[in-house]
Amino acid sequence: MSALVLPVPPGVGDLARRRRRSRRKALSSTLVVAAILLALILASLAVGSRSLAPADVFAALVSDRRDAVGVIIHELRVPRTLTALLAGACLGVAGVLMQAVTRNPLADPGLLGVNAGAAVGVVVAIAFFGVGTASGYVWFAFAGAAGAALLVNAAARPGRRGDTVGLVLAGVALSACLGAVVRIITLADDDTFESFRFWAVGSFERRDPDVALQLLPFALAGVVLAALVARGLDQLRLGDDLARALGVSPALVTIGAATSITLLCAAATSAAGPLAFIGLLVAHGVRGMVGGDVRISLPAAALTGAALTLASDVIGRVIAPPGEIEAGIVAAFLGAPLLLWLVLRRTP
User: Fold this and answer.
1) How far apart are CA 320 and CA 39, in angstroms?
2) In angstroms, rounded to a whole number, what is the distance separating the alpha carbons of residues 332 and 274?
3) Domain range list for the chain
């Protein structure tokens, strides 16, 4: 007896081909961004107030030489490059998660109050504890960011943890309140204001070698949690009812995504200060490169965020020699027209 062959529904073959093309496009785009990032890493190590040849950079990296070139590479440029990579990757992943969990293309990681909480932590460290170094106030900033995120989650309509509108509204309200606290403290003390303003513009200058290593465990925890909730976020795009039918809990996915965003943004903001447009711009750019699938977007977002942040830092070093312009200012200056270009090129 011959086997029964069921007809293939029309359109299934076309759908499979489109998916294969989409995956090939995502892979090629991610590889291109990775190549750009490698070039930017080399530029970050070579460019500065004293430019170095690539041969000198490689020689210093593979040795423990203590001459001027070795000190520049190991004590100055490697730490700031690692910090920029960490901060950018965290903000890129957080941007994708934030827009996925809120289902809002205008959502930014700072909506959860993380940036404002970190700012309060830094101000308190400077004004009341006399802390004046990045490695000193990084933990104050992280504690402030985490505390703000916990308050937002607690205030976001208890009993309805899947309500993303309440989450965003609570974040906006808390950010306004914490911003007022920062202004009160800084206006009352000129020394605190002078120290705080260098952190507030977002900079990687004079970062201690251990800053990135201190925050790396929190960043890795945030990335792992993001990977765990990515599938649930993709299914939530189908609607809460259908997601529940597929075995997904919207509340647990929302809480997991919010926790990941908190860890990632707290690590990035603590290390570098608030960096405008990075998370928002990366989320839109990655969506255009690899599509809206969160699972596929996360690696591309990490690489793109790191590349954009490192590019901002490198550009800031070369446009005003022998000084430099902080990466946060460059990111805001470049981010606004880039975001506008992404919006205008979208097909209606």
Assistant:
1) 21
2) 11
3) 40-345
Sorting pLDDT into bands at 50, 70 and 90, what band is 39? very high
Q: Tens digits of per-residue pLDDT, 149-176?
A: 888 877 765 545 455 677 778 888 899 9
- How long a stretch of residues is the chain? 348
* Rounded-to-integer distance, Cα 205 and Cα 227, Å: 31
Nearest C-alpha neighbor of 272 from the set 299, 312, 303: 312
| pLDDT over threshold 60, residue 3 | no
pTM over 0.90: no
Question: H/E element holding 240?
Answer: helix 240-245
CA gap 43, 162 in Å, rounded: 44
Q: Are 88 and 308 in contact (CB under 8 A)?
A: yes
Instruction: Tell the residue number behind the tokens 């919010």, with chain if given.
Output: 258
Pairwise CA distance, residues 39 & 307, whole Å? 9
Task: Report the helix count and the strand count for the chain, using DSSP H and E.
Answer: 14, 0
Q: What is the DSSP letter of 63?
A: S
Cα–Cα distance, 90 to 279 (Å, whole number): 9
What CATH architecture applies to the domain 40-345?
A: Orthogonal Bundle (1.10)
**How much of the chain, in percent, has pLDDT values that exceed 70?**
90
Name the token pair of 281: 């711009």
